[in-house]
Design brief:
Radius of gyration: 34 Å
Order of helices and strands: HHHHHHH
Number of domains: 2
Strand content: under 5%
Number of helices: 7
């Protein structure tokens, strides 16, 4: 049976190996200590030919087990996905939203064509005021007025709905 060297250089080298193999994500000293305890227990019933390899591989396996345990623990803390509350809106909320959408569409149809087009370019297409102004050959201030007019009208149009 091969003995484990007791000098500091040997253990410092083992520590570097464990750190490298576990990518430094965990405390290598704790892993090496746990691996040594397992080595001593294993030696009671079995012969170990290469204690250095045993220690490094055991430390890596412990790190993997710890990582898996943490992942399961995190998953458990977030809650079981099979019993997660349904985040979909209620049917009456869906119906109310559809009715509001119909009302907004009716309001959009009542806007002057140019105001409607400028408003939709800004809100749906995401164009900036200066881009819309350049497209229509008008001032940025005029674009602002068209959008403000559309917003005011649609706000009043849907206010009591």
């Amino acid at each position: 049976m091969s003995e484990v060297p007791r000098d500091r250089a040997y253990w410092a080298g083992l520590l570097r190996l464990v750190t490298r193999h576990t990518r430094g994500n965990t405390d290598a000293e704790d892993l090496l200590h746990s691996a040594y305890l397992r080595l001593e227990r294993y030696r009671n019933a079995h012969e170990v030919q290469n204690p250095t390899s045993f220690l490094v591989q055991t430390a890596v396996n412990i790190a993997i087990d710890n990582h898996r345990h943490e992942m399961l623990w995190d998953f458990g803390q977030r809650g079981d996905t099979t019993q997660r509350a349904d985040e979909a809106p209620l049917q009456d909320e869906v119906m109310a939203a559809r009715e509001r959408l119909v009302r907004v569409n009716e309001g959009l149809a009542k806007l002057p064509p140019r105001t409607r087009e400028i408003f939709l370019l800004h809100r749906l297409e995401g164009l900036k005021y200066r881009e819309i102004a350049a497209r229509f050959g008008i001032s940025q201030s005029a674009v602002e007025k068209h959008i403000a007019r559309a917003m005011l009208f649609l706000t009043e149009w849907t206010q009591d709905f």
